[in-house]
Amino acid sequence: MNKSTIYHIAEQVGVSPATVSRALSGRGYCGEKTKEKILKIAKELNYAPDQAAKMLKTRKTKKIIFAVPDICNPFYFDMINGINQVLESYGYLLILFYTKHSLKEELKAIQNVREKVADGMIMVSFHFCEENIKAINSLHAPVVLTNKYVSAEGGDKFDYVYVDTYEGVKLGTEHLIKQGIEKIAFIGGNMSEQTGFQRYCGYRDALLDANLNLDESLVIPSNYTESGGYLAAQSLLERSERPQAVVAANDLMAIGVMKACEEAGLSIPDDIAVVGMDNLDIASRVYPKLTSVALLQEEIGRNAAQILMDRLHGNLSSDGEIKLLPRLVVRKSSMRFG
Amino acid sequence: MNKSTIYHIAEQVGVSPATVSRALSGRGYCGEKTKEKILKIAKELNYAPDQAAKMLKTRKTKKIIFAVPDICNPFYFDMINGINQVLESYGYLLILFYTKHSLKEELKAIQNVREKVADGMIMVSFHFCEENIKAINSLHAPVVLTNKYVSAEGGDKFDYVYVDTYEGVKLGTEHLIKQGIEKIAFIGGNMSEQTGFQRYCGYRDALLDANLNLDESLVIPSNYTESGGYLAAQSLLERSERPQAVVAANDLMAIGVMKACEEAGLSIPDDIAVVGMDNLDIASRVYPKLTSVALLQEEIGRNAAQILMDRLHGNLSSDGEIKLLPRLVVRKSSMRFG
DNA sequence: TTAACATATGAAACCGATTGCATAATATTC
DNA sequence: GAATATTATGCAATCGGTTTCATATGTTAA
To answer: Which N-terminal residues, if any, form the signal peptide (chains A, B) (predicted)?
Structure first.
């Protein structure tokens, strides 16, 4: 356990620790010959700078926290990739923190930033309650959120990078309408929550814009899982007049829908078309391949990380708010006349 | 930017910083009344301990690095889950580091440990070359590897948690043999690498143990991707006598095989049975569902993290080496008489 | 030759906690 | 009531860097 510090180097070379620090960091003046000697001895002593000491003095950790509800959802993998691309180029490390959809854990993540474990944070599905908002507002470090809360007052000033899911569902629905399909069902999540409601609105507005009838009985709330989609689809299919198409609020649900159709002996897309959302990896692996709306996870990650870096380096004065537009990926499951 | 430290608290309360430290940490003696006052003022000042300072003094970071080749492979996510379960209960944070299959990045990860960014590291697919081994051996922090190199000398003393893939392939192959299938092909990865070779051996030994003929022309090296499996399968299927079953070295390859079979108009499992390995999420989503060998990623993660915690808390004196036995998950794709 | 300036280096403060040692105050024992 | 043990607190050193300021030396300009 032969530790080596700038003091050890200084002693060996016969200079002061300050000089060693300057030689190694390249800041300030330092003679060429001295510098050479210092570097030589540093290598000999197998010197590695202590980051804790550096952090204490410089007040920078070169780390950021990515707070995410759970990692089971493949959706977040791509976000991490995007984030990491940016962080890497700035020499930052990424700390992964699970919030498990719980306010308590989100507060813990915030606390870690307060304790200067990281210089900033990117947070997914932030709970917009008073306690949380207050906690995040009192931070002296930048935070980027990836879900936006549209408040009545609109007084909060957060950095946001998010994707317009309203537009996403609308795109998917319009794609069906364009093919002449009129009787379209929507399987959504919890529509009393903001994101769930927005997705519903995308469906609704696509119909209304096309002057189609909006039949509320074709709107089924469920949960965002495969079985959620499966059960909702079953209830739709056992009706006398089944819909010609289903828009699901995410891919897992859509896959559940496809399963229910298959069991009911219906062929996709001929008997019934299906559109999902998220454009997960599996969307292109199921049979038939699933039409889906890409939510650009990786790009969200990249943008969020970039905003954070800009804030940390003083290159961003105004509010950061980036709204990404989703992209429809048409595959077999919705091609009525393919 | 009203920072607050133990000095500010000390001043307000009228005690020394040492007393504040003791009151807040609970270590050492501290009077009840003083403690109360200190806690009260700490809350008033919105005090949060500075982790950098704490780290510097205590020489502990309460973080560990998970160095992983890439994050695109869903395989690793379950590992992260397992790791995190353990870390959480010990109050550690996880730093994610991408090595991109490159030695240079692995050395960077090691350097981070040297610089005391983290207290320990879990590393996936470590390159067993001299430089890397030397670097890791000179660390004064515990490292757990998840791939084992069986060296001739066997002199290295690393902590390992890994799964016996030899046994995995053997299990899968035996499962087919038990059903009376004799003509079984093996699509492997790079068999000049240790892991690739071991998988091949599992296949070979299963046949030999059952006194079956080992036909080397049925062994196809390819790469560990869907298209790798697809191409290999095509070359198998265009022969005059096609195999009755295929064992693929991982699930992605197996899915490629299934695709090739489908295109060739063969029905799975009746015309040809397929077995994969990794038991990824998609194995149960493809049609027909894919029989696979579960490599217990989450358990690897949990065990690796536990060894690390034990080392860090002095609860482990001997070498840590845990070999996990894979588990066969039988699904439709291999059930010849289902 | 001297003023003005650039370069090289050291001394020491500082970042914000922890902790060993010394001392003071209080409690316990005989 | 004296001796001893226990509890409470402060002082000051320490962790390992960075950085400001002062000083010393060397260089160039006038």
So the answer is: none
